[in-house]
Every structure is written in C-alpha cells, then in structure tokens.
Amino acid sequence: MADPAGCCSTCATCLLCPYSCQWITAKKEKRKGLRTTKYDCSWFLFLFCIFLFTLVWLYFAIIILNDFHNFNEFIFRQKKLWLDWSLVLLIATAVLISYSSVLLVLALCLQLCGQPLKLHWVHKVLLVLTVLVVAAAFTGLGIKWAEEWKSAWISLQATGPFLHIGAVGGMTLLAWPLASFIYRTRSTGLRVLVLLLYCAAMIALYLAPLGITSPCIMEENQLPPKPALVGHRGAPMLAPENTLMSLHKAVDCDVQVFETDVMVSADGVPFLMHDEELTRTTNVQTVFPERAALNSTAFNWTDLQQLDAGSWFLERRPFPTVQSLSPDDRQEAAEQRIPSLEQALEAAKHSNISIMFDLRPENHSDYQNFVNVTLGVILQSGIPLQQVLWLPDGFREDVKQQAPGVQHVYGRKRVENEKEPVLHVNLPYQDMSSEEIRQYRQDNISVNLYVVNQPWLFSVLWCSGVSSVTTNACQVLKEMEHPIWLLPSSTYFMIWIVVDCVSFLIIIWAFVLMKKCSRRRRPAESETDVLLTKINSLMQE
C-alpha cells in the first residue's frame, strides 16, 4: 500500500508507533505483508463505537452534575465519608474519552496516509475495559438513579439543535477517511455496504430537526417572565445550609422564598434540620459521641444549642464556592448554630420573604403533635400567614382549620374532581413536561420545580413558563437576565438548511478530491510493480 502524496515516511512512522506500538519505518520492504485485514477493520469499527459510547457517557456526566450534590449526601449517609464525587466522575470520564479520541484520530490519519491499521493488543484490552467501565456506569445509573434518564431527555430540549449541528459536522469530517477507504479497498461489496451506511446516517442527520423540539425555539415576545427563585435550605453554596446566615445570603440573592426542613426537639421546640441524624451538618460526634447516631428529634433544645452547625461547611467544602468566601464570611459561617423555627420566621418576616418547609420525619409516632407545635409557633410569630407555604401532607385538613391563611403547596399533580382547587404544586423538575407546565400556567396554578442549579436547565424551564425553581445556586441564576439561547423558528430553520447544504457540498468535494488522489497513485503503483517484475526476472536468469 503506497503512501499518498503529502504523507512523508516520518509522519507515517510517527502515526504507526502509538497505534501499533511498533517502530516500523516507512520503507516498503520493511512493511511488506502489512495490510489492513477485515479483522483490523472490525477493531476499527469497535474503536469508533467505543468513542461514541464514551461520548454519550460524557454527555450524561455533564447533565447529572445538576443533581450530584444529592449523590454526595447519599454516600455520606451510607459510608460517613464526604467527598465531592463529581470531580472523580469528571476526571475518569475525561481519561476515557481522551484515550478513545486519540486512538480514533490516529486510526483516521493512518487511513488517510495509506498505512495499515494494526491495533496493538494492549490497546485492545484497554478498549474492552473502557466498554466495561462505561457499561457499569450506565447500569448503576439506571438502577440507583433512574430519574436521571428523565433529566437527559429534558437536556435534549436545551442541546438538541446544537447536538444536531455537531453531529453533522463530525460526520462530514469523517467523509475524508471514508472516501480514502472506499477508493482503496478492493472488495466491491464492502465498499457498497460502507457507503450505504454512511448515506443512511447522513440522511437521518439531515432530517433530524424534524423531530427536535425545544421550548426555547420561540419568538422573543413570547418568552414568559423569569421564574422566581426559591432558596434550597437558603443559599447552601454561600453559607451552611439551614442556618440564619444561609437565609440572609438567600435574601441577598433576591430569592422570594426560603425553603427549609423542620424537626421538633424532644422538649417540643421546632428547629431547622434536613437529615434525620445530626452527623453531616454538626459536630455532634465530638460533643455527644455516644448519641451521634440518634434521630435529631431525640435531642432537647439545650443540647442542640451546644452544637456547631457551621464549621463542617468550611472543612468539607460541599461546593467549590466555599473557597471563594471572604474572611468575614468564613468567620460568620464558623459561628453558626442550629436555628429554631421561631428565629427563622422572625428573619423571614423582617426580610419580607416567604418560608416553605417540610416537617420531618413523616413516619414519627408523634407526628400530629409535631404539626400542632409547629402551627403554634407560626401563629405566635406574627408573620403574615400568606408568607407561610405549607408542604407536609399529614393532617393538612387540621392545618387549614387552625390557620386558614396559610398557603398550601402540594407535592403532586392535580387530579380530576378535586374537592378544593390546587393552586401551588412543588415537584422534581423531572416530573413535569413543558406541555404540562404551560397548561398549569394557563390555569393559574403556580408550579415550583426542584432542584435546579445549572443555567441550561433554568433556561429550559424559563422558556416553558415555570413559576419558580428551588435552587442551590441562587447567586448564579440571579445574574441571568435572559435564557442561554432563544431562537425564532424561522432562524432555526435557516440554520438547519445552511448547515445541511454546506455539509453536503463538503462531502461531495471530499469524495471528488480523494478520487483524484487515488487515480494519481495508481500509475505510480503500476510502474513500481512493472519494475519489480523486471528485477525479479533478471535475478531468475
């Protein structure tokens, strides 16, 4: 297989070394017998599929970053080990995608230079391991975190138009090595098969926008108002969660609602705490080591006031933003204590924001008393009842009777023949489609979705018309004055047609150019073969 013009022997050798792990010079006699076999082609196809497989996993890894803090909390509750596992995920994914990408680029360059695709056995083993690792990651995602499949579907509404352009561009660039392969191979059946598969893939990509839908493909004047922000346990990226500092930081981010979790101490004092145990967000293991594993409700208020509820935030750094805190903020965070519901209501009333909370644990034997105690604190606080958003479902009718001004938020979709109309719903962002959000908006039902941290997700929900979102990243979403992208349908149609036409012309050009190159090589190869035949005849004489 002769080297095409423009591919020097040094370049060919440098490409062969990392791919085949052999130092093979470009001299013909040293490469005699080295040809790309069907077995080698099958490994190239396997490499291409692995590249696509790891690319899909990279996409998923980026998408699930929105919810990865939940995974970190889950691991801590199970193993009592805190680590930002998102860094591990991204580093491992970057290594896998980089390895498969480099091998694929080498293989394509070798094909263009007319060199044999002799993949070394070490690479083959590593590629098989790559497949197993990524397959295990997808399997674990499907078993333990199935709702992320819904997140991926939502993400396609934000990235679909751009993924289409990227896919068309990638497949267009593939035309050069593909044309080189078609003009080099001697098997007519293989050439026809490869060409048909490529044409089918390109036609599917050219027509893909017919199936792409996104709420952000709309006219500028159709864009709904920006969703209100609900601080998830306050502003947990800027302060320890469920503390007064976190509430004040959330107010600085212009949130309209402080979302929190309430528990009731053993002596009847409602306080802010999310976890059933105190180990993650306090120093209970140091102060009360023998009682650290007990439920939060087993401690009386005096004991709870002895706990440090802020130092863990500085030590474990649950979010990268902790590193950028000012010295004053660090000092304030270190001084935080567990606040009572009464203190939180007073701060909310003073800041003129609403407060929304869950009452935990729902399965407690004394839950009705928890409801009554919590209601008593709310009524005595003097906060306007319309600023209180009640989430717990247990004994909701009692709450309506004792505090009729409280706004009730339901953690479910509305059902037919409701006794009372549902005016507020609070759901995971994966549980409502864009169509449902629009319908609820038309029916004047307020929809709050949680937990939304990434700007791309916020943009999709903004375009869909959601009323508000619960977020950890209020300081980021506060600065967004517009969705990341917004395209009128006519503009998107124009982009679609232009991209497809340019791609088609480049593919035609690639095949024509490679055909000319192949014709130039054939006379040279024929002359070489004649010369070798004459030399062989003379040696035999």
Q: Describe it for me?
A:
This protein folds into three domains: 10-26 and 35-145, no CATH class; 149-214 and 487-519; 248-424, Phosphatidylinositol (PI) phosphodiesterase (TIM Barrel, Alpha-Beta Barrel). Strands 1, 2, 3, 4, 5, 6, 7, 8 and 9 form a nine-stranded mixed sheet that branches. The chain has helices at 9-20, 38-63, 68-79, 85-112, 121-144, 147-173, 175-184, 188-207, 244-252, 284-287, 301-305, 311-316, 327-334, 341-351, 367-381, 396-402, 434-442, 455-464, 474-477, 489-540, and strands at residues 228-232, 257-264, 270-272, 354-359, 388-390, 407-408, 424-428, 446-450, 468-471. The protein has 20 helices and nine strands. With 541 residues, the chain is an alpha/beta fold. Helix 2 (38-63) packs parallel to helix 5 (121-144), helix 6 (147-173) packs across helix 20 and helix 14 (341-351) packs parallel to helix 15. Mean pLDDT is 90; it is low at 1-6, 25-33 and 524-532. The longest helix has 52 residues, at 489-540. One of its GO terms (biological process) is lipid metabolic process. It holds the Pfam family GDPD.
Structural class: alpha/beta
Uncertain stretches: 1-6, 25-33, 524-532
CATH class of the largest domain: Alpha Beta
The largest sheet is: 9 strands, mixed
Order of SSEs: HHHHHHHHEHEEHHHHHEHEHEEHEHEHH
Distance between the termini: 28 Å
Write the CATH homologous superfamily of the largest domain. Answer: Phosphatidylinositol (PI) phosphodiesterase
CATH third-level topology of the largest domain? TIM Barrel
Shape: elongated
Second rung of CATH, namely the architecture of the largest domain: Alpha-Beta Barrel
Number of domains: 3
State the helical fraction: 55-70%
Query: Which whole number gives the mean pLDDT?
Result: 90
How many individual β-strands? Answer: 9
Estimate the strand proportion. Answer: 5-15%
**Helix segment tally:** 20
Radius of gyration: 31 Å
Keywords: Glycoprotein, Hydrolase, Membrane, Transmembrane, Transmembrane helix
Protein name: GDPD2 inositolphosphodiesterase
Transmembrane segments: 41-65, 85-113, 125-143, 163-183, 190-212, 493-513
Family: Belongs to the glycerophosphoryl diester phosphodiesterase family.
